[in-house]
Design a protein that fits this description.
The complex is a heterodimer. Chain A is mainly alpha-helical. Chain A has 15 helices and 1 strand, in the order αααααααααααααααβ. Classes of the chains: A mainly alpha, B alpha+beta.
């Protein structure tokens, strides 16, 4: 388990440093002081190694730069070198702006909604293992904790939309609740597959499982990964599924009436939740801090943060590329497409696990399972899409061309309706 | 269940200040949940009384007004008006002037469709990416307009009897340099959107206009061609020598939003073909005929129509032998295309209504005039 030594200067495991500091306090002061000092150390460490680089520089600056690249423009490049001070400038601007409250809004709730939105985000990171011993709260059922807490911001968004007393906000609020209800189901079922396969609900134990078998769960449970990615981007309101803030339809959804730093809290914490989801996905599916022995040489927390940022990059990429789905299409996709796949996958995983235990096979068996599951995922997605009536080749993507002007030109071969 | 849960429709204003109304246009949509049950259009926020103002000014002074009707295709509007005056006064345009007009009108079509296709992609939720790609190419066209006429948006370049100035020396070089990248951008936009699953489910079978409705509602332009009707003024009633150029009319399959989008993209390709041919065969000679400054056409009336990027753009003029038109009327394609919005939106969801509105490609300056 322990890869690093116990010296405080071994930065492969930052928990040593905090332990040494706490022991030093213990010698000179009453023990109770540690209860105050430990959270401060944790907070400062988390801020320096994760929040600052991730939230501000990958979330705000990096996202805008990369989206700018995708969109053939420069992105922020005026404030500071390479525009690096842009997040700071944005924050100062937002703090200066007046936070308006409409006359007809419910002022107390409208004021409280951003607070409700921020608080769960901090909690989410408590159970995520940044390194072998670097986890704030090693909860045995950390996975359940994560799922439970990540459902809370939806409530805050609903409060925001309802209290604004604006029709666009109301639409956004209704949509986010409906989405959350739909997508939680396949999400939880797919995470259940992971739990069955690894036989644990503790996030450090899931990472340990992946490290021991030398195979990440993305290969063992590819379908779970795909469904997790879709469901989580639906819950986070990221672009193919950002219907709750659909700019071209309902202006800004539940955020329409928000301005100033209240809006800024929503914006910042949207990134925070996306980072939390990315961190969770790297823990569950991408092996967390482990990287086939590389964690002996590179600090594991750096590996973990790199994986989180890479995963976040995919969010940015989809945001810059894809159009948005309609509400009913999204709901239909969750219930008709993802849910049956999730159920079938859960059944298959349970069988595999049972076989694995019954036959008493070794760890090498996971490679065979990985192969089976990859093939199964591809076949299941393909067949189920066909079954639901999806025919990709039937849709012409170029118009017909005629030489002479005249009347209506009937279509000889009517194109198929598609999905 | 229905006794416990009751729902009733309520009115939701889409516009006049909304990201997707393409200007100050308002739809009073009655929605039941996500479904639109009624839609009422409210226009007139941008009314500037152009038709009345034009009755007080001379024929030449009216050209800048036409810039400001459809501000995304000022060249086409200039052209339509000048054609109407020339018809009224019986003025002929030299071949070089006609060829320059064709090049300018097609460049304007490209610029306008860049905006139209990009804004439509934006309405479906493709967050700014396709529109930025198209805007990059549109910028080059606007630079060429600036080079030629001194203005980017309100060009005021056409004159009665020809065009205002001779084209600059490096005009041909710059236009030819634009064609290749433009083709690539069209292909990129097509690659990003046409085969995209999400785009297909959003635009296919949405806001369908059957061919009968398209004809009865007097639609024109990509709206009409999207419904599978081969109609293009450039072919049906050629002006400015369009009959010399080899191009094809793209038509859609079933008249949905997707068809209108792919028709626009294909029209851009055809425009590039026309520009290449016009540049190859650019005749010499004068660019315009001499026309007296205070033109007094003989009494009578004239109607000239062109295929503007948005459809059939007509100018109707009545002269009483005075220095200014007795009556000046514009047939704006955007307004007439917009008239089917209710048929397109009712029954669909709010998201579909936005896609329907985006697929019309309206310019509010032209609707309200």
């Amino acid at each position: 388990m322990s890869l690093a030594t116990d010296h405080w200067y071994d930065f492969r495991d930052l928990s040593n440093l905090s332990r040494v500091i706490l022991e030093g306090i213990d010698k000179v002061a009453p023990y109770e002081l540690a209860y105050i000092v430990a959270p401060i150390i944790g907070f400062v460490a988390a801020f320096v190694i994760f929040v600052l680089p991730s939230q501000l520089y990958v979330g705000v600056y990096g996202e805008r730069r990369i989206i700018g690249r995708i969109q053939a423009r420069r992105g922020p490049n005026r404030v500071g070198p390479f525009g690096l001070l842009q997040p700071v400038a944005d924050a100062i601007k937002l703090l200066q702006k007046e936070a308006l409250t409409p006359k007809v809004a419910d002022k107390a709730l409208m004021w409280a909604a951003p607070v409700f939105f921020v608080a769960p985000c901090v909690l989410l990171f408590a159970v995520i293992p940044f390194g072998p011993r670097m986890v704030f709260a090693d909860v045995p059922a950390g996975l359940i904790f994560f799922i439970g807490v990540s459902g809370l911001p939806v409530l805050a968004a609903f409060i925001a939309g309802w209290s604004s007393n604006n029709k666009y906000s109301l639409f956004g609020a209704m949509r986010i609740v409906a989405m959350s209800v739909s997508y939680e189901v396949p999400l939880v079922l797919m995470l259940l597959c992971v739990v069955v396969f690894t036989n644990s609900m503790s996030l450090p134990a899931i990472v340990e499982f992946q490290r021991e078998t030398d195979l990440w769960l993305i290969f063992m449970q590819p379908l779970a990964f795909v469904v997790y990615f879709i469901a989580v981007s639906a819950e986070l309101n990221r672009t193919p599924t950002d219907i709750a803030e659909a700019e071209s339809e309902i202006v800004a959804g539940y955020l329409t009436e928000y301005s100033g730093m209240r809006w800024g809290l929503f914006y910042g914490m949207d990134i925070g939740y996306a980072l939390a989801a990315a961190a969770f996905a790297s823990t569950i599916f991408l092996g967390g801090w482990s990287m086939w022995g590389l964690e002996q040489w590179v600090p594991p927390w750096l590996i973990f943060i790199a994986k989180t940022h890479l995963f976040y990059l995919v969010f940015i990429w989809t945001r810059g590329t894809l159009p948005r789905l309609r509400v009913d299409q999204l709901m239909g996709f969750a219930w008709k497409f993802l849910l049956p796949l999730a159920v079938v996958n859960l059944f298959l995983v349970s069988l595999e696990r049972l076989w694995w235990l019954e036959a008493g096979l070794g760890d090498g068996m996971v490679f065979a399972f990985a192969g089976i599951n990859i093939v199964f995922s591809a076949v299941a997605i393909f067949l189920w899409a066909r079954f639901l009536g999806y025919r990709p080749e039937s849709i012409p993507t170029r118009p017909r061309l005629v030489q002479k002007a005249g009347g209506y030109v009937p279509v000889e071969d009517p194109p198929g309706g598609g999905k | 269940m229905s006794e416990i849960v009751q729902s009733e429709p309520f009115v939701m204003n889409i516009g006049p200040q909304h990201p997707s109304t393409h200007g100050v246009f308002r739809v009073k949509a009655t929605v039941d949940g996500e479904q639109v049950v009624d839609a009422e259009m409210v226009i007139g926020y941008l009314h500037r009384s152009m038709e009345k103002l034009a009755e007080e000014r001379t024929y030449t002074q009216n050209i800048p007004f036409t810039d400001r009707t459809d501000y995304l295709s000022s060249m086409s509007n200039n052209l339509g008006y000048c054609l109407a005056v020339e018809k009224l006064a019986g003025i002929d345009v030299p071949p070089r002037g006609q060829a320059i007009r064709v090049i300018m009108a097609e460049l304007q079509r490209l610029a306008s469709h860049c905006m139209g296709a990009g804004a439509f992609a934006n309405d479906t939720g493709a967050w700014q990416t396709p529109i930025m790609w198209f805007m990059r190419e549109r910028e080059k066209i606007l630079d060429i307009f600036e080079l030629t006429s001194g203005a980017r948006l309100t060009c005021n370049y056409m004159r009665i009897g020809g065009v205002a100035f001779e084209i600059p020396e490096d005009f041909e070089e710059q236009v030819r340099a634009l064609i290749g990248p433009m083709r690539e951008t069209i292909a990129d936009g097509e690659g990003l959107l046409s085969g995209n699953e999400i785009f297909l489910v959003r635009a296919r079978n949405v806001a369908v206009i059957p061919p009968e409705l398209a004809i009865n509602a007097s639609l024109s332009g990509p709206m009409l061609r999207g419904s599978g009707i081969a109609w293009d003024i450039r072919k049906a009633d050629p002006y400015c020598g369009y009959e010399q150029y080899d191009f094809e009319i793209p038509i859609g399959y079933q008249g949905d939003a997707y068809d209108r989008f792919i028709v626009r993209l294909e029209e851009m390709r055809q425009s590039l073909r026309i520009i290449e041919q016009a540049l190859d065969g650019l005749p010499g000679g004068p660019h315009s005929t001499e026309v007296p400054l205070s033109l007094r056409p003989p009494a009578g009336e004239a109607y000239a129509r062109i295929e503007s990027p948005r459809g059939e753009l007509g100018y109707y003029l009545v002269s009483d032998e005075g220095p200014s038109p007795y009556r000046f009327h514009i047939r704006p394609p955007s307004l007439i295309n917009l008239s089917v919005l209710k048929e397109m939106t009712v029954g669909g969801s709010i998201a579909d209504a936005i896609v329907a509105l985006g697929s019309i490609d309206i310019v509010v300056g032209e609707i309200d005039r």
